[in-house]
UniProtKB/TrEMBL annotation:
Predominant localisation class: membrane
GO cellular component terms listed in the entry, alphabetical order: membrane
Keyword Membrane: yes
InterPro entries attached to this UniProt entry: Bact_transf, EPS_sugar_tfrase, Undecaprenyl-P_gluc_Ptfrase
GO molecular function: phosphotransferase activity, for other substituted phosphate groups
Name of the molecule in the record: Putative colanic acid biosysnthesis UDP-glucose lipid carrier transferase
Amino acid sequence: MKTALNVPLLLRQLVDCLILTLAFLLALETTGASPYPANIPVWCISTISWLATGLYLHLYDDFRSRPFSFEFMAIIKTLLLHVCILTFILFYFFKFFHAPRAFIGVYSLYILIGMMFSKILIKKLFLRIRTNGYNVKNILIVGAGETAMHFHDTIATNDHFGYQCIGFVDNIPNQALNGKYLGPLSSLGHILENHEIDDVVLAIPESSREETESIIVASEKAAKRVKIIASCYQHCTSTVSMSLFGNFPVITIRSSPLDHTGNQQLKRLFDICFTLFLLVTFSWLFLLIAVLVKITSPGPVIYKQERWGLKNKKLTIYKFRTMTINSEWNSDGTYRLTTRNDPRVTRIGRLLRHTNLDELPQFFNVLKGDMSFVGPRPHVTPMHLELQKTVQHYMLRHLVKPGITGWAQVNGCRGESEQLDRQQQRINMDNWYIENYSFWLDCQIIFQTIVNMIKGDKNAY
């Protein structure tokens, strides 16, 4: 049997080869390298290395049903490994490659820019092609229940996924199928033979083991791939992952890059180094603020407060005191939220809160390991207990260490609020950060925090 060519894959690889060639020539021109004959084998090895690395790191996977961020990360990983391989080859095998040391850096930058633009353009091109009915995969849905109908509605309303439902197979006909009912499970083999089908999607979560096995056997006999929709699909997020526990496939419905020990160690190392640098550099600022707090209002310089951190455990955070002492509770024992133009805030406290400088003592929380520099901001105990009951997915933010600053804070969601939708928005941002953590995202948040400190945050009061 002849194997059909994967035209989209070949097109993407061809475009990559073109981008690599243009980037190579531009890098030679930019760095002033001479066009020696040795450049040709370097270009060949670079191209082969990129294609092989891309295949290994899933750069050429089908990203039709996933956002561009997945493909972007594949580009970054491929580029990093490609640079390592190319650097090794140039330093050890190509002593006669006449190019400045900056060549690899410039070459990599051109590759990154070219790949980003080309992948976006190709994604848009395939979207237009699929919208017109080309490059579409035909699928057969086994099942006609609620799960199957939801899956069908998803692919029907998202043309860019590039899937077309040929029909449904189920023992019980469903009147809502609009003529797409093809027959019972017993006729699955006959249906697969008489229809052009790429994938079989099993959408009968409640099916018996025997039924599932017979469906898989019949599909594989007809050389069709089988995809199974897990019965817990409604609880899964975009970061769902599956791993093997012995012979058992185990689905993690919500995962995070911070689940990996390597990322945890990198984040901890960055926290320690960056915090020590700031402590040494701005030690004079700590002393100045401490003196101003002490001389402008009676009471301690440092304010301690109970909050909740990793794994829902209590921690004590440190801040420069910005309010008059003993003013955080109402006379009836309820917690008193900070409001705009709050009379409890001292003169120097207003400036500290507006510039976030009151948070500086939390550097010591970071060094202790209670907190991270970037992460979800911890709540005071009264708010913590209330939000557990009123806000969806609130406790998921306690899967990581809390932070001095976070994604929600740099996007305007800071401070306590009595509005439920505002609270939910903040928690959603915290959970988005957890699921999308990267070292570069932390750098972006820190940069935005510094900008907010300089210009002042209108939501800080």
